[in-house]
Amino acid sequence: MFGYVRARQDTLTPECLAGYESAYCGLCHSLGRRRGLFSRMFLSYDFVLLAMLLAPAGEGKPAECRRCPVHPVKGKPTCLERDWLDLAADESVVLTWWKLQDTIADGGFFARLGARFLSLGLRAAYRKARAACPGFDARVAEDLVELRALEGRRCPSIDQTADCFARLLSAAAPMTGDAVRDRALEQLLYHLGRWIYLVDAVDDLAEDQKAGRYNPVACRFPEWGQEEQSYLRRTMDHSLALAGAAFQLLERTEWSPVVENILYSGLPGVEELVFSGQWRDYQKRHRRNDR
Questions:
Q1: Which of 92, 80, 81 is nearest to 44 (CA)?
Q2: In whole angstroms, how far apart are CA 112 and each of 99, 103, 107, 116, 117?
Q3: Which pLDDT tens digit goes with each residue over 126-136?
Q4: What is the Cα–Cα distance from 97 to 198, expressed in whole angstroms?
Q5: Are 29 and 223 in contact (CB under 8 A)?
Q6: CB of 194 within 8 A of CB of 170?
Q7: Where are the domains of the chain?
Q8: How many of the other CB atoms lie within 10 Å of CB of 245?
Q9: Calpha distance 24→48 (Å, rounded)
Q10: What DSSP string describes the chain?
Q11: Buried/exposed 189-226: b ≥16 CB within 10 Å, e otherwise
Q12: What's the pLDDT tens digit per position in 238-258?
């Protein structure tokens, strides 16, 4: 997705932190096993949350030490293969592919050039992932067409544009036949997607204004002062509250403490860093921890 979905690791218990990291490594291994080494370049903690939300109760944190190109000698505890990790891996490839296509369509010259190069490397993995989850791929493509049309018209409504991305992400929740679970997970991912779209818009605001690119926040708020920021944060915090409420309707699993940390501590912390202009510096300082 975008890199904003993170736990607040300093408040996780050692056991939860170890499980979180093993899920990260498990998703990485699933990507490599199913879709090739190149797809592992796009691993992020965003998709780890998706994997943990897809995990059924009883399929928790069993892990074994495994080596990889980043940890070739000692290895790291890695969550064992699971269907929910495989589904998260495939959906992450689909989302990454379409994000690259969006950059090719709307990015600056060098961003488009880089996205074309990465798309070539990811093409084979994307085709396999699309075959594994064709319904999700079709939904992502459909919603992105609508989103691009709104952006092309420089839509001033943050609700309309954010709704497109929110619907796109909510489609990552497969239907199981359990009406309560399916509705709750769909709503959780919907409101998470809405929050991601808006926090990304704030994060990119200065760059988009400088380059003359569409930004929903800039179109909605020609003046970007304290009052406008407070208004936007209220609607974003409301989305987080609704995501949290939907989470409470889900059956608790071994991953629930980590998910709670992300929803109630990690995401508000990221929001604060983005609005205060400190997020990109934070990312640079913590990039090594993701490897």
A1: 92
A2: 11, 6, 5, 6, 9
A3: 999 999 999 99
A4: 21
A5: no
A6: no
A7: 9-290
A8: 14
A9: 6
A10: --S-----GGGS-HHHHHHHHHHHHHHHHHHHHHH-GGGGGG--HHHHHHHHHHPPTT----EEEE--SSSSSS-EEEEPP-HHHHHHHHHHHHHHHHHHHHHHHHS-HHHHHHHHHHHHHHHHHHHHHHHHSHHHHHHHHHHHHHHHHHHHTT---HHHHHHHHHHHHHTTS---S-HHHHHHHHHHHHHHHHHHHHHHHHHTHHHHHHHT---HHHHH-SS-SHHHHHHHHHHHHHHHHHHHHHHTTSPP-TTHHHHHHIIIIIHHHHHHHHHTT-HHHHHHHHGGGG-
A11: bbbbbbbbbbbbbbbbbeebeeeeebbbbbbbbeebee
A12: 999 999 999 999 999 999 999
Helix 83-106 to helix 45-54 angle (10° resolution) is 140
Rounded to whole angstroms, the Cα distance separating 261 from 259 reads: 5
Place of tokens 């943050």: 158
Which pTM value belongs to this model? 0.93
Question: Does 9-290 carry CATH code 1.25.40?
Answer: no
Here the tokens at position 9 are: 């690791």
Six-digit token string for 283: 């990312």
Mention every residue, 6+ apart, whose C-beta is less than 8 A from residue 40: 28, 31, 32
Q: How far is CA 175 from CA 54, 182, 218, in A?
A: 11, 6, 37
Structure tokens at 219: 């179109």
CA quadruple 248, 249, 252, 258: dihedral sign: negative
- Tell me the per-residue pLDDT of 207-218, one tens digit each, with 9 for 90 and over: 999 989 999 999
Give residue for tokens 């983005």. Answer: 274
Using alpha carbons, select from 71, 57, 1, 59 the residue that is nearest to residue 29.
Answer: 71
